[in-house]
Every structure is written in structure tokens, then in C-alpha cells.
Specification:
The chain folds into two domains: 5-80 and 188-247 and 311-366, Rossmann fold; 99-171, no CATH class. It contains twelve helices and 17 strands. It has helices at residues 13-24, 66-72, 100-107, 113-123, 133-158, 167-171, 196-203, 217-223, 235-238, 284-288, 315-329, 348-366; strands spanning 5-9, 28-33, 44-46, 52-54, 62-63, 78-80, 85-89, 92-96, 188-192, 209-213, 228-231, 248-258, 269-271, 280-283, 295-303, 310-311, 334-336. The chain starts with a strand and ends with a helix. The relative contact order is 0.21.
């Protein structure tokens, strides 16, 4: 096994974690990526004004998995960071996810925790079964909050109504009766101290790993035979769209630098569910803790065309993916792993977990 080379397609989380695990086990690994950089969508860099920005929108690391946090700690130091988000409704900014403060501020109330729980119980529209994202939200917070915070945001983000999306999309967003205004409540919440790209550089820094950028899998596939391929790209592309395209949602990013402003907004991300064509604005200095005279922000415009970012969670898409998955099972010398290859709306920590599991599986087979 040790004189064979494994080709890894994609230098994001799935590919880089696989590369490191295989390299540490003595395998030779060649990593390719069609982009001119490593780190996939987590790629960050200094913009032309010297502010560290996330090129492909904000990436906030959070996990309950101690094993995953410890694994990544081999490649980076951390900066503790708890992400906070506000949602703007009728020109006023509210804590989001919805908590007790959101209710009190929005409706001019003075609820305690029990009062907030009773409020949700009173306004919720019980749904049975809970099958769609609309069901999830109406079941939890009722129609008014659904229409103010969720309905139009979802339409912008996905180009679909919440009633057309599987329940899991909305289930990612909690509703709270306390005043916790953190976006995530995971045990481990931190940002790589020197940025994501530096963490990936450390992960790929191994004598058994070679990296080739700005190269397309189709070209390499034609010219080389590899003993094994780890494929982290879109699974439908691997099979030349035999059954048609799997739907993905993309984003257009509008980066802006404000030289005269130390701060643009109070928190890392502000959602605009009902106004503007963009869904949210993120200000990077909140995330990174960087000191700089100016500040850099990004607006996100969801769209259908462009790089695939989000698998679209609908029953018919899942059925189409299952057909591709059956083809994948017949590819004995290929491992499919990651958000695009597994058509899963993974968080970063979940991709790391999936890659560690796939690497373990591969190495046990090769042993």
C-alpha cells in the first residue's frame, strides 16, 4: 500500500483531513483542487486593505465533539469566539435566534422564562406530522414570528417556500425562552487564531502529501491511473450527470471595505429577512478579533448559478442523490466524502467527522 498514491480531489475539509490521516498512516497522497488555493470554502486571506476576510462567506467554528476539536487543535491555536446574530424587522434589530428578549422587545412585553414558554405555547400552530420547514417554525413560534423572521429569509436563501423544504433546514435554528443570544450553544466555540487557511496549510504540511492547485479532476482523471481516489466534489459531476443535475444553491458575495469605520455593526452577522436582495451582512473583525483602523464586510446574495454551496433539502433531490449513491457503491476504488459528494448540509465539524470516519474505513480495508 505504501508505494501507491491516493488521489484526493478537493483541498477543503473532507479532502485535507483525509489527506493528513492517510499520510500519517504512511500513504502517499496527491491533493488537487480546481481553485488556486487550499481550504475550500473556508479559505480566508488578507484583503487589499489588510483585513482578514472569509472569501466565501462567514465560517464560524462550533462543535460538541471534543474529539474533533482536539483533532483540529493539532493544526491551529484558537481564539474563543461566540457568534451573535441580529435580525432586522421593520428597521429594528432583534436578537436572533428568537429568545425572550426578542419577544419582549418586539411586542412590548415583560416576560420571564415561564412567561416566554407560555407565549410560544399560545401562539404556536401545532403541526402533525412535522414534515417541512414551515411546519417546524409554525409548530414552534406561530405565524407572526414565522412571517417576520423566517418566511422571506427562506425564500431568499433557497429560492423556495419553507413549505417546499424538508424540516431539517429550520430545525437548525433553535427557539429560546431564556435570554441567551448566542447563535450556537455548542461546548467548543472558537476561531482558528491565525485563520482557516493557515490551519489547512499545517494540515497539508507532510512529506507524504503533494498539492496541485488550479487543476480540474477531469484532466487528471484522463491522464493518470490512481490506485484509489478520494472524491469530495459534487457526486453528480463525478458520474457526468448521468441522471441529471442535483440541485445546489449558490451565493454571490459582495465584499466592501470601509476605511473610516472601526465597526460597521454591533455583532458579527445581521440578517435582513424582509429587506434587500441580500440575506445578511457579516463583519469579519468581530469573528477574527483583528485590530485595524478600517473594517471589511460581506453581503450574501443567494442564487442558483455558481459554485455549489448548499445541497437543496427536498425529498425529490434526496431520491435523485440515492440513485447516484447506488452508482458510487459500485466504484470500489473511490471514496466519496464531504458536503457535495454526500449531498449533505454538513457543518464544518460534521465534515471533519465524516472524513475521519472515511479515513479509518479506508485504512482498515487496506491493512
Amino acid at each position: 500500500m505504501h508505494n501507491q498514491t491516493t488521489l484526493i480531489v478537493g483541498a477543503g475539509y473532507a479532502g485535507s483531513v483525509m489527506a493528513r490521516e492517510l499520510a500519517d498512516a504512511g500513504c502517499r497522497v496527491h491533493v488537487i483542487d480546481k481553485r488556486p488555493h487550499i481550504a475550500g470554502n473556508a479559505y480566508d486571506e488578507l484583503d487589499e486593505h489588510g483585513v482578514l476576510v472569509h472569501r466565501y462567506g462567514p465560517h464560524i467554528f462550533h462543535t460538541n465533539g471534543e474529539r474533533i476539536f482536539e483533532y483540529l487543535s493539532r493544526f491551529t491555536e484558537w481564539r474563543p469566539y461566540e457568534h451573535r446574530v441580529r435580525g432586522v424587522v421593520d428597521g429594528v434589530s432583534y436578537p436572533f435566534p428568537i429568545n425572550r428578549d426578542t419577544l419582549n422587545q418586539l411586542y412590548g412585553l415583560d416576560l420571564d422564562e415561564a412567561g416566554a414558554a407560555a407565549f410560544f405555547e399560545r401562539v404556536r400552530e401545532p403541526r402533525e406530522p412535522v414534515a417541512t420547514s414551515e411546519d417546524v417554525v409554525l409548530n414552534a413560534v406561530g405565524r407572526d414570528l414565522y412571517e417576520k423572521f423566517f418566511l422571506n429569509y427562506t425564500r431568499k436563501q433557497w429560492g423556495l417556500d419553507p413549505s417546499q423544504l424538508k424540516a431539517g433546514v429550520a430545525a437548525r435554528i433553535p427557539v429560546r425562552t431564556n435570554t441567551d443570544d448566542r447563535y450556537f450553544t455548542d461546548t467548543f466555540q472558537a476561531m482558528p487564531l491565525h485563520g482557516y487557511t493557515r490551519m489547512f496549510e499545517a494540515m497539508l504540511d507532510h512529506p507524504n502529501i503533494t498539492v496541485e492547485l488550479s487543476v480540474d479532476f477531469a484532466d487528471v482523471r484522463a491522464r493518470n491511473h490512481h490506485d484509489h481516489i478520494v472524491y469530495t466534489g459534487p457526486i453528480d459531476a463525478y458520474f457526468n450527470y448521468r441522471y441529471g443535475h442535483l440541485p445546489y444553491r449558490s451565493l454571490r458575495f459582495e465584499h466592501e471595505h470601509l476605511p473610516a469605520a472601526d465597526r460597521y455593526q454591533d455583532v458579527g452577522t445581521v440578517n435582513y429577512p424582509n429587506d434587500h436582495a441580500y440575506t445578511r451582512i457579516t463583519e469579519f473583525k468581530h469573528l477574527t478579533g483583528q485590530q485595524h483602523a478600517g473594517t471589511s464586510i460581506v453581503r450574501e446574495y443567494p442564487q442558483d448559478e455558481g459554485d455549489p454551496y448548499y445541497p437543496v433539502p427536498r425529498a425529490e433531490n434526496e431520491a435523485l442523490f440515492k440513485r447516484y449513491e447506488e452508482l458510487a457503491k459500485l466504484e470500489a476504488d473511490v471514496t466519496f466524502v464531504g458536503r457535495l459528494a454526500q449531498y449533505r448540509y454538513y457543518n464544518m465539524d460534521q465534515v471533519v467527522g465524516a472524513a475521519l470516519a472515511a479515513a479509518k474505513n479506508f485504512l482498515s480495508r487496506e491493512a
